[in-house]
């Protein structure tokens, strides 16, 4: 194991010295991923520490990113550098909403992660609800789920978190720490995954950052040694409890990235963390959404004041989604599993199985890595 690490470190150095090799390695890299997918099965519904599962593949390797190229990225030994782990943070959430479920399933279908970590302060026995049962009833999905206990932060660098926003600011902090511990793919609970994200797994860190905007922290794809992460956490030395997005987005953008843009692989549009309210909830067509987006932030907590049809559909579920006419309905229906108990779902599936098989088997249209 140690020898292997040394070899990896050597490969890294040689790649830095001989950039001509990179092209070869990057191509090789695309093939590299398939093996892991057939790796050792993970026991269902793991609670980390309480079972004997081994650590996930390559999540604990250390890398020195000095001089890293944020445009070309890098692979090691034919492998992508960011582990194929998905992380969700769920503070005080006992119930899986329909939207949580849709998003989790979109990530499962498109990304086929080795594990899906649910970092939560809720006891596993207290997780409830129809859609949690649905997750448990699907063996291949459920065996990837790891319930990872985590405490809701109460303070940061000696400063108490905002009373009203503790769950949110706590999650902002926890996602940085989680990425620094494991690396992988962090997703907000309302991020819908449109395409496989492997093309970003060769970067130190990739995040949504639109022109003239602050960084979007809803999607983070990073190695745990990414240099930006500790700098970001450190901005909480000046924590602003009264400002919603100061430490999560504003300060890391103005204080770190404006000075050192090379620390980030900037994704301007494809992570869909910009304002897509109208496309999702007020339009029946969204040409090329699949071509142009890799993920979409569903802005679910902002619907109550931004969605003109909110009163007709204050809540989504597997029944009303069948006739919900706007784009989000299409997105959701695409990732719902075949459920023999529901005639409507069955009818829908009878007509769309072919389309969905295309997604499941990874036959996607080619699309560019860069924005
Ligand atoms: C989180 O849940 C616990 C247990 O139900 C509760 O005591 C606490 O007040 C909740 N925290 C917040 C910030 O809502
Ligand atoms: C779980 O639920 C029980 C009651 O149903 C409650 O006493 C306990 O505090 C809950 N635990 C957590 C961690 O939420
Ligand atoms: C990479 O870093 C440079 C600064 O060195 C910056 O100008 C460029 O926009 C960055 N590229 C991406 C894709 O983030
Ligand atoms: C769906 O197709 C199956 C056969 O593939 C058929 O038995 C069933 O009746 C169909 N369901 C509906 C609702 O059309």
From TrEMBL:
Highest taxon listed in the record's lineage: Eukaryota
Organism of provenance: Daphnia magna
Gene3D superfamilies found in the cross-reference section: 3.90.550.20
Protein name stated in the entry: Sulfotransferase sult
């Amino acid at each position: 194991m140690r020898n292997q690490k040394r070899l990896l470190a050597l490969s890294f150095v040689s790649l830095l010295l001989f950039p001509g090799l990179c092209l070869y390695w990057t191509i090789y890299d695309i093939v590299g991923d398939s093996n892991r997918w057939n790796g050792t099965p993970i026991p269902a519904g793991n609670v980390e520490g309480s079972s004997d599962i081994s650590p996930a593949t390559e999540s604990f390797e250390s890398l020195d990113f000095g001089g890293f190229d944020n445009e070309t990225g890098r692979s090691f030994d034919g492998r992508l550098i960011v582990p194929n782990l998905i992380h969700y943070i769920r503070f005080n959430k006992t119930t899986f909403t329909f939207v949580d479920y849709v998003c989790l399933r979109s990530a499962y279908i498109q990304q086929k992660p080795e594990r899906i970590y649910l970092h939560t302060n809720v006891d596993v026995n207290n997780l409830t609800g129809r859609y949690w049962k649905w997750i448990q009833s699907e063996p291949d999905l459920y065996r990837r789920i790891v319930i990872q206990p985590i405490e809701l932060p109460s303070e940061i660098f000696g400063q108490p978190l905002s009373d009203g926003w503790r769950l949110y600011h706590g999650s902002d902090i926890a996602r940085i720490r989680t990425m620094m511990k494991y690396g992988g793919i962090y997703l907000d609970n309302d991020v819908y995954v449109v395409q496989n994200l492997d093309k970003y797994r060769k970067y130190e860190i990739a995040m949504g950052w639109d022109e003239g905007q602050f960084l979007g922290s809803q999607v983070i794809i990073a190695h745990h040694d990414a240099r930006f992460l500790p700098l970001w956490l450190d901005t909480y030395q000046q924590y602003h409890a009264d400002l919603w997005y100061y430490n999560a987005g504003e300060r890391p953008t103005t204080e770190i990235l404006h000075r050192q843009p090379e620390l980030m692989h900037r994704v301007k549009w494809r992570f869909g963390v910009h304002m897509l309210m109208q496309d999702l909830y007020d339009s029946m067509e969204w040409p090329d959404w699949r071509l142009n987006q890799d993920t979409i932030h569903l802005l679910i907590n902002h619907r109550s004041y931004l969605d003109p049809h909110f009163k007709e559909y204050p809540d989504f579920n597997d029944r009303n989604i069948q006739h919900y006419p706007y784009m989000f309905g299409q997105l959701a229906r695409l990732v719902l599993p075949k459920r023999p108990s529901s005639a409507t779902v069955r009818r829908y599936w009878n007509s769309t199985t072919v389309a969905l098989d295309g997604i499941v088997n990874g036959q996607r249209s080619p699309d560019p890595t860069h924005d």
